[in-house]
Write a structure and sequence with these properties.
251 residues, Rossmann fold, 7-stranded mixed beta sheet, 11 helices, 43% helix, globular
Length: 251
């Protein structure tokens, strides 16, 4: 919980829709606006709240980011919510759900940091630089450069946390709390290994679904949440999430 020891404040948010709350935590160096194509597809059933998780009032630290996220959710008047984390955002999702299990209805993780830690994660992310550059879509590239122009030190410090932190304690807390969890993974993620996603899902007692190539969408890669929002929405619907049902209990 916030302890008043820092200059934490609610974060800038993009909010779409007027249904049950779905807090979407975006990927590394992305922007809330990057996820608007998906948010607009869910807006008829959910109130999608996307905080700018790198736009912090002080230098990025995990404790400071978590405190700002907590204040943001309170400021939005959200009591209970579903959480959806993409890539880096999954680390904050784990931390929030582990600390506030009574407020989290369900969790969805898409191609996330999982519980892999230390420098093997960095090795995975950089194991094929040409392929990594090749997967970058225009929305991802635009968000990446905007983020590095406006918050370069925040991103460097956040990357260090992502490479060195241990998230297994948060996974264990979520399992003990019995929060329903789902892991979605791209057919061929250019950044993270599918085996890590499978291991993460096992530890989390979560379902694990791989989005595969179709004639309509072609290859499904790390950023399919916003590169292929129709396909991602269809996978969310198949999970029968409470936030997307008329009888959902998030409020």
């Amino acid at each position: 919980m916030p302890d008043g020891s820092s200059k934490a404040r609610p974060l800038r948010c993009v909010v779409v829709g007027d249904g049950h709350p779905l807090v979407l935590l975006h990927g590394y160096a992305m922007q809330p606006e990057t996820y608007l194509p998906l948010a607009r597809r869910l807006a008829d059933r959910a109130r999608v709240v996307i905080p700018a998780i790198f736009d912090l009032p002080e230098r990025w630290s995990f404790a400071h980011a978590r405190e700002c996220l907590e204040l943001t959710i309170d400021d939005q008047g959200i009591d209970q919510m579903s959480l959806l984390g993409h890539s880096f955002g999954g680390g904050l999702e784990l931390a929030y759900a582990a600390s506030h299990p009574d407020r989290v209805v369900e969790c969805v993780f898409s191609d996330t940091l999982a519980d892999r830690r230390e420098f093997r994660l960095a090795e995975e992310a950089l194991r094929n630089p040409p392929r990594l550059l090749g997967m970058a879509s225009v929305p991802a590239a635009e968000a990446f450069f905007k983020s590095f122009l406006t918050h370069p030190i925040q991103l460097v410090r956040a990357a260090w946390w992502g490479f060195t932190s241990d998230r297994t304690g948060d996974v264990d807390a979520i399992v003990r709390a019995g929060i329903p969890c789902h892991v979605l993974w791209a057919e061929r993620d250019s950044i993270l290994l599918r085996s890590d996603g499978e291991e993460f899902a096992r530890h989390l007692h979560a379902t694990f679904t791989v989005a595969k190539r179709t004639p309509e969408y072609g290859r499904i890669d790390h950023d399919w949440m916003f590169d292929d929002p129709d396909l991602f929405e269809s996978h969310l619907e198949e999970l029968k999430l409470r936030v997307l049902s008329s009888s959902g209990s998030a409020a």
